[in-house]
Amino acid sequence: MAGNGNTDGEFSFSAAAARDALPRITTEKGAKSTTSSDVCHDDTASRVNFQTIDELHSLQKKRSAPTTPLKEGGGVVIGTSGPTTPVSGESMLQSVSASLASLTRETGPKVIRGDPTSAAKVSHVPQTPTSVPAADISDSALKFTHVLHNLSPAELYEQAIKYEQGSFVTSTGALATLSGAKTGRSPKDKRVVKDETTASELWWGKGSPNIEMDEQTFLVNRERAVDYLNSLDKVFVNDQYLNWDPENRIKVRIVSARAYHSLFMHNMCIRPTPEELENFGTPDFTIYNAGKFPCNRFTHYMTSSTSVDINLGRREMVILGTQYAGEMKKGLFGVMHYLMPKRKILSLHSGCNMGKGGDVALFFGLSGTGKTTLSTDHNRYLIGDDEHCWSETGVSNIEGGCYAKCIDLSREKEPDIWNAIKFGTVLENVVFDEHTREVDYTDKSVTENTRAAYPIEYIPNSKIPCVGPHPKNVILLACDAFGVLPPISKLDLAQTMYHFISGYTALVAGTEEGVKEPRATFSACFGAAFIMLHPTKYAAMLAEKMQAQGATGWLVNTGWSGGSYGSGSRIKLAYTRKIIDAIHSGSLLNATYRKTEIFGLEIPNEVEGVPSEILEPMNAWENKVAYKDTLLKLAGLFRNNFETFTSHKIGEDGKLTEEILAAGPNF
């Protein structure tokens, strides 16, 4: 090849041009030539602060401490959730070691901070040498358990993708995970320790979600979970809070084996500030989540390889044989249903929003009633979508995040939820394209119970802190597939308690010989699976608070009109929104009402934007006889369901119980 040639197929260059393109090299002293004592540097780049590749890598990451936004004095904070960087040192490790201590050993395991794959020097809890019999020493006692404490979402992504099969980043940045064999809660495998205290305090027996176990069996399962967690090279530890009311918040610690579980609880619980984390101390409640590691089926009270156990005396929860993250969320909700009433605070399974004028509304409703849709209103601030407390100062969200259903999700139907599925969000059991990683929310291949867990700040109109004044309206939602309940009814106090205890909705059953029949569903306090005390106790607290604050109760039917499912039609969402708007504005308080037969519900003569003919259910039915028969059928179902609660007296004289019973259907 010729140096300066220009022949086709040959490459030529100019030495002078090449020399001019190179960075200029000068010496530190500014000399034109270099000697062995001179330090050369490239004046086109800044000087470096490292001598080795390890030092370079150490400079890549710096400590930061973004947190859950806490805006003083209320108001709305819009933005992404921040991870909480661990700040505590030896005291945190000592506390975690104590949490992981076996009940049969004097000290907890040797714990060390950091990822076991990291070559960096990490601190650990010093152990005082003791002389113990060889029979008391186990392999797990000789090893270090690495503690990954309050990792950020980015760190948890790395852990999940690297070590947990089935973890992927979707096209929108969310972390898609699998919960294994269990894709929902296992209520038949949930147990609560029955001791001298809880025997008299909790709701046991017919209709109760509380299935008993004894203290000894709990300790057997606890030991099994703790031994499993201690056998691992690393465990994830989350120290967080429940309840946005600073005077009544609960400190919780979650010890788990999966990054997926840690990120889920990072999103769902309230994230502490670095200062709060440094002074976190001993938790008020601890979860030991052993995930896929099963319980021993030969253990007393066990009916499968799954067991979810709560010990209110020890303030502990043990999870064995299920990786479904919702068990942690709902387990803690049950704990709050026990702890909060002891402080005269009402715990509620409800949505909650607040108008710009400060008026707060509570939304109760079972699956399919529209609770999430109706409580999410762009003209109002979202306090929370699922779990709340009502104290002497007002309402507060229990959680720091939202757990939304994803099946058939679309941008048009639920734009806020759609946009919240981004980096930091956990997507459970969804199906996605293997190349583009775009999620198909209509695909039920894994389960119909697909879910997204994200920080509440991902909702643009969320109110941070998630607290508000006393509610003005208590809205009970029912999807009545029988088509006989009015679209809107105003309730007196006794009626509110009756329908709150009943917790009614109706679901459409499967097809049998071409005939579809609605099926009534009752869930006490609109959340029977999670309550600890007798439903009448929560109802009495609700009535007391409503009466003290002058709140109004409403029953809203989001189901069928003009006939049952199959003959009538679903009440249009636009009409239901007009009804909810009229409740918020206060216009329905000034409306004129008439009373229905059987249920004795007061229905308004008119609601702006809603056809008057659907306000009275009978008018919308062509077959009046069929309407009456269906109405009596539903009334009978209500009465049969309520027989479970008639033996429990509210108050010393039981007068309130009689008022509640009188508020039910009369036929």
TrEMBL record:
The keyword Lyase applies. Pathway: Carbohydrate biosynthesis; gluconeogenesis. It catalyses: oxaloacetate + ATP = phosphoenolpyruvate + ADP + CO2. Keywords: ATP-binding, Cytoplasm, Lyase, Nucleotide-binding. It comes from the Eukaryota. CDD domains: PEPCK_ATP. Residues 1-41, 59-78, 108-132 are annotated as: Disordered. Its main location: cytoplasm. Its EC number is 4.1.1.49. It is found in: Cytoplasm. Monomer. This is phosphoenolpyruvate carboxykinase (ATP). It comes from Brassica carinata (Ethiopian mustard).
